[in-house]
Amino acid sequence: MLISNAENTKKRKIINIKVKDKLLDLSYPLVMGIINTTPDSFYSGSRKQNIKDILSSAEQMIEEGATILDIGGYSSRPGAKDVDLKEEIQRIKEPIYTIKKHFPDILISLDTFRSEVAKIGIENGADIINDISGFQVDPEIIDVVAHYQVPYILMHIKGTPQTMMNHTEYNNLFLDVVHYFSSKINQLKKKNVHDIIIDPGFGFSKTLDQNYLLFDHLKELKQIFDNFPLLVGISRKSMIYKKLNITPQEALPETLRLNKIALEKGADILRVHDVKEHIELFSH
Q1: Is residue 237 among the annotated active site residues?
Q2: How are beta strands 22-25 and 16-19 bridged, if at all?
Q3: Sequence-ordered list of residues with C-beta below 8 angstroms from that of 129, at least 6 positions apart, any chain
Q4: Of 237, 242, 243, 276, which is the active-site residue?
Q5: What are the DSSP calls for 34-53, one per residue?
Q6: What kind and span of H or E run contains 123?
Q7: What is the C-alpha to C-alpha distance for residues 67 and 142, in angstroms, rounded to an integer?
Q8: Phi first, then psi: what are they for 269, rounded to 5°?
Q9: What are the DSSP calls for 51-118, one per residue?
Q10: What are phi and psi of 108, to 5 degrees?
Q11: One digit per residue, pLDDT tens: the chain, 284 residues?
Q12: Does residue 271 carry a catalytic annotation?
């Protein structure tokens, strides 16, 4: 059974996610390390564009205690340029295959909203699909997930990476997010997708204040969807560095402070750029 290295972290409700022929134990929180095979991700430290650097970064994160590596070939930062299908496939195919070949026990999450990319990624070793679009851009991605029976990360967003910041109007942000997850989970179950992880989508279709409003309601969100692991991805994001008027490179201390609060509110998975510091956070 796969477990986190955070031995001293308080146990919570036992949730198991099936990953191929194993169960991912989420009775302890886990760390997901970010590796972006892109030239334009917002945090320069996560950009790895040659296989040697990618493999070195993967090895370091694994040694530091990451349970999952999240590989992405399409930058989803606000205003990022579109990437054509062939380019995205080229960016993720070899890295996933090579990491899995060298580190067969590590779990690989593929950050994509395209069904064809998901299919190729899974066939080359990806274990989880992390779809920032909530299957709104390419609904066929759910058919791929269902066919291969891999876990699916369902994130809240309105619009696309190019348009999402034009869609920040809500009747009630928290209730709208709850309705979104309820509806999407029902649709996923009808498609025979049952291993679902929810992600509130910090930084996506939300203003600075809205991000913190939703963060304040993390505990309630976890209580409502307590059968589903909760993933929090705030590492070095603009909700941190813009609020403090600093750069992403300076945002680690506040990232750690907020992620510690996220754990107290019930977060099961932290998606981060800095694995070692967050593993240490668990034991404090």
Answers
A1: yes
A2: antiparallel
A3: 109, 110, 112, 118, 121, 122, 141, 144, 145, 150, 151, 152, 153
A4: 237
A5: EEE--S--SSGGGB--SHHH
A6: helix 115-123
A7: 24
A8: -135, 130
A9: HHHHHHHHHHHHHHT-SEEEEESS--STTPPP--HHHHHHHHHHHHHHHHHH-TTSEEEEE---HHHH
A10: -115, 125
A11: 333 444 434 556 778 899 988 889 898 899 999 998 876 554 445 445 688 889 999 999 999 999 999 999 987 766 667 788 999 999 999 999 999 999 999 999 999 999 999 999 999 999 999 999 999 999 999 999 999 999 999 999 998 777 888 889 999 999 999 999 999 999 999 999 999 999 999 999 999 999 999 999 999 999 999 999 999 999 999 999 999 999 999 999 999 999 999 999 999 999 999 999 999 987 76
A12: yes
Is 279 in contact with 60 (CB distance < 8 Å)? no
Amino acid at 245: N
Asked if 263 contacts 29 with a C-beta cutoff of 8 angstroms, the reply is yes
SS3 229: coil
Residues 48, 206, 236, 271: which is the catalytic one? 271
Indicate the fold that domain 16-282 takes in CATH. TIM Barrel (3.20.20)
Query: What are the structural domain ranges in the chain?
Result: 16-282
